[in-house]
């Protein structure tokens, strides 16, 4: 916890300076989730982005904002229209717009979970080895884009994937999660990274059979011969 930040944040909340971005309640949500993402090691200081659907528009973090130290002016309102201008918005605005246009997403959380990124370099999908990962997250597709930052190409493939899945990884870049609420998106994000860490550690420990499953997604074969657990494609509601 950065105690130098909290008093400043309180002062901003009391100032009432929330011109077009949903007021203090939305800012509180962004601030808490952004801070949690940074303190959890899911993003570096200026990485990641957060958005919520708001009627015919969306509210998204500003380009270059520090999610761990958000200020009210770091929230930017943009239309869902792909042609609409929003110069200060995150460079991933095209992806957020495409996901809101094509899926029932109400919130989107984009982070750079390190263990998940390592696993994304190894195959076309990430299948959990642990019970919590199987139960909460399920299989996560890994997507590739020639231009993996802020491009219309990645917007298109991520929106397509998030029609079927609630989470998807962009290879070597990061995780995109859609949710009903930011808390739900954060829950899925942390469960995914915790599961990816288990898979990574299994590889380091030389547990070869499950790690092969995670790498190439071919067949499940637990060391004791037990059957593959059910891994639904990102179940709609976490338990
Ligand atoms: Zn990113």
Q: What features would you describe in this structure?
A:
- The chain has 239 residues and is of the alpha+beta class.
- It has a single domain, classed as L-fuculose-1-phosphate Aldolase, CATH 3.40.225.10.
- It is 41% helix and 15% strand.
- Strand 7 and strand 8 form a beta hairpin.
- The protein is globular.
- The site of zinc ion has 5 residues, from loops.
Key phrases:
239 residues; alpha+beta; eight-stranded mixed sheet; 8 strands; binds zinc ion
- The CATH topology comes to L-fuculose-1-phosphate Aldolase
Instruction: State Rg.
Output: 18 Å
How many individual helices? 8
Q: What's the total count of β strands?
A: 8
What is the distance, rounded to the nearest whole angstrom, between the alpha carbons of the first and last residues? 29 Å
In round numbers, the mean pLDDT is: 83
What would the principal axes of the Cα set say about the shape? globular
Main-sheet strand order equals 3-2-1-4-8-7-6-5
Quote the beta fraction: 15-25%
Query: What is the CATH superfamily classification?
Result: Class II aldolase/adducin N-terminal domain
Give the SSE string.
HHEEEHEHEHEHEEHH
Q: Which class in CATH terms? A: Alpha Beta
- How many structural units, i.e. domains? 1
What structural category do the secondary elements indicate? alpha+beta
Helix fraction?
A: 40-55%
Let me know the largest β-sheet.
Answer: 8 strands, mixed
């Amino acid at each position: 916890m950065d105690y130098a930040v909290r008093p400043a944040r309180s002062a901003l909340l009391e100032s009432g300076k929330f011109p077009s971005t949903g007021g203090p309640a939305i800012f509180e949500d962004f601030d808490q989730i952004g801070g949690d993402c940074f303190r959890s090691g899911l993003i570096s200081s200026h990485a990641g982005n957060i958005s919520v659907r708001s009627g015919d528009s969306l509210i998204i973090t500003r380009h270059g904002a520090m999610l761990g130290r958000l200020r009210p002016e770091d929230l930017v309102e943009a239309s869902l229209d792909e042609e609409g201008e929003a110069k200060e918005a995150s460079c991933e605005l095209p992806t957020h717009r495409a996901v809101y246009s094509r899926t029932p997403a109400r919130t989107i959380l984009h982070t750079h979970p390190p263990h998940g990124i390592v696993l994304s370099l190894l195959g076309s999908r990430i299948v959990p080895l642990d019970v919590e990962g199987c139960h909460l997250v399920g299989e996560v597709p890994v997507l590739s884009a020639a231009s993996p930052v802020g491009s219309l190409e990645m917007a298109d493939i991520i929106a397509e994937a998030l029609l079927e899945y609630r989470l998807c990884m962009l290879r070597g870049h990061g995780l995109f999660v859609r949710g009903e609420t930011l808390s739900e998106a954060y829950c899925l994000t942390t469960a995914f990274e915790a599961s990816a860490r288990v898979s990574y550690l299994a590889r380091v420990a030389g547990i070869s059979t499950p790690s092969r499953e995670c790498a190439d997604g071919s067949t499940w074969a637990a060391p004791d011969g037990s059957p593959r657990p059910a891994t639904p494609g990102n179940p709609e509601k976490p338990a």
